Amino acid sequence: MQTHPYSWNYIPLLMQIVVAVGMGCSMVTMSWHIGRHRNLKTKLEAYECGIPAEGDARGRFSVRFYMVAMLFILFDVEVVFLLPWALIYRQLPKITGSPMFGFWEMLVYLGFVMVGLLYIRQKGILDWASDKGDL
Question: Can you tell me the distance from the alpha carbon of 134 to that of 65, in angstroms, rounded to the nearest whole number?
């Protein structure tokens, strides 16, 4: 029985990675060489929505846009934690051994979320009517 080094077991994985990266690079390269790169009038016309394009598509967004996006993620994650807790709330005393542990645990979590919400309110991030410029 011939033995080989353990690292040889990774050769099929390495081959798969090389093939995947090679195919991806070759497709991008081929599309770049085969595709047309002409800005025609029809190419620059409004597409589907009917509103003509104005300015550069790479315009700058206000910092508020990104702050609201991060807030959405924050409160989305809050729901991810609250929903499973609410579904098993009645079984928590059996799981934890303490009748109020699950309640106090969630109260602490909601306290952290409330501190974040108060910070947001104090900074005025959601106050779109005021013109403070970028934060």
Answer: 10
